Amino acid sequence: MKKVLLTAINSQFIHSNLAVRYLKAYAKELDLQIKIREFSINDRLERIFEEIMYEKPDIVGFSCYIWNGEYVDKLSNLIKRVDENIQIFYGGPEVSFDCREVLLNSSADFLIEGEGEESFKEFLKWKLENGFDRKDLKIKGVYSKCQNQILYGGQREALDMNLLEFPYNEEDDLSNKIIYYEASRGCPFNCKYCLSSTIRGVRFLNPDRVKRELKFLADKKVKIVKFVDRTFNANPKFAMEIWKYLMELDTETVFHFEITADIVTEDEIELLKNAPKGRFQFEVGVQSTNNEVLKNVNRYIEFKDIKEIVMKLEEGKNINQHLDLIVGLPGEDFNSFKNSFNDVYSIGPEKLQIGFLKLLKGSSMREEAEKWGMSYSPYHPYEILRTKDISFEEISILKRVDSVVDKYYNTGKFDHIVEFLISDFETPFDFYYKLSEYFYHKGYFNRSISASEYYKVFLDFNKEILKKENDVLEEIVKFEYLKFNKKSWLPPFLTRLNVKEEEQAIKEKLKEENKFDKKLHLEKFSIDIDRYITKKEIVYKEMYHIFN
């Protein structure tokens, strides 16, 4: 039996690949052995190559994205050097817009453009019927390299999503992975930097099917199900039906959605107020709060409308919201981005994610690069280098800001420290900028630093840059450290003040009140720590704090 190896090289180990699973499921009836192998770009190239060759495949398919293009090209070349008879095909968004050029300049024999399920199935059927060695096929959606010619079967029409096979089964090990799910394809908007703008219209799965499949994933105790839908709430009726169903499930699974905030309805807000805490995560693409910049990329929305909806959703304190900004948009200079950052920070989202514009193949943004004075990397992932509005040096500064924001804001492990220090700065951006410059000049971006050093940085920063004493800050740092680390040990730069007799007396009192638990940890502070923490914690006898 002929063997087809579908190969995914993900950006991280925790990620999974939905595309190869769709392909395998859609072609399951064919008399072929179809196997999936998943790796990450953090794996050694030699290891991936050896694993592929160990499978002894007749055909190898690669799922191609901006993060793995270099790996895929190198692996294809190595495969052909060992065995020219192994046929290779590419598919995915990275290769679907300049297909002829990709095929001519790679070791691939075939390329499947766009949605691949039906094209892949027909491609394999043709191979079975006409011989695996032949390449002179003409199938819709497929490019073929045959005797130095490129054959093309023409564009394939969009697939009815309800014809797709559910890509997961009982045998799949879905633990410790982000599991991706797709309830719709397409996007109603036309943002210039996004590939979804190249496909008109939105197609949906039948909602009853979506419920069944999500129940399967919840029953498998998947930790996170991440919807790949570009705008999950494009159809309010559909979104509300799925949300309501998930709210009623008895599950610990978290469901992550990309939504457009300004089209969220009052009915949706009322419904979502009753969602179990932590059941949903919303990713909201703000990109910029400069309305003129947004118009330059075909986003005709205003930040005040986004803010209003995000703040209403925040009232319930039950949904984690991740708000996105993009550096390098046309018309946005450094100061404009700084304002965007401060605007979004003022909302207090659970995560503030900074991305850097990527000029993707097929996007209209790439076509307008010259108009906006954009210079971008010709290599994957085609990231912006400079524009006529923002310099390379300024983008480099914002990359450093992104690093400290991701560590010190998005993890949620330093909130009270940041809140204490940030008041010394005119704006939140100024704080993160100054901290990132401190990191840069100390060389912390160029080496690994320990978990405890990330806390010590604040004490050094406060003394060296702000020229302030650390007596209060040290206690706040100690509080944050103990919340998220082993209570039995403190790093040398923090001082333990506990008195054994006092501890024992408090424990005896707790026992009398039936509040004692062996897992509780008592810590003494030199200040009334309750004054410096925003969320009320259990404090006992002023200076002692009980950590659960």
TrEMBL record:
Kindly list the GO molecular function terms attached to this UniProt entry.
4 iron, 4 sulfur cluster binding; catalytic activity; cobalamin binding; metal ion binding
What cofactors are annotated for this protein? [4Fe-4S] cluster
UniProt xrefs under CDD domains? Radical_SAM (cd01335), radical_SAM_B12_BD (cd02068)
Keyword Iron-sulfur listed? The answer is yes
Instruction: Specify the domain of life of the species encoding this protein.
Output: Bacteria
Matching InterPro entries? BchE-like (IPR051198), Cobalamin-bd (IPR006158), DUF4080 (IPR025288), Elp3/MiaA/NifB-like_rSAM (IPR006638), Methyltransferase_Class_B (IPR034466), rSAM (IPR007197), rSAM_horseshoe (IPR023404), rSAM_sf (IPR058240)
Keywords, comma-separated and alphabetical: Iron, Iron-sulfur, Metal-binding, S-adenosyl-L-methionine
| Domain Radical SAM core: from-to ranges | 173-398
Residues annotated as domain B12-binding? 2-134
Q: Which GO terms describe its cellular component?
A: cytosol
The record, for PANTHER family, names:
ANAEROBIC MAGNESIUM-PROTOPORPHYRIN IX MONOMETHYL ESTER CYCLASE-RELATED, SLR0320 PROTEIN
Q: What is this protein called?
A: Predicted Fe-S oxidoreductases
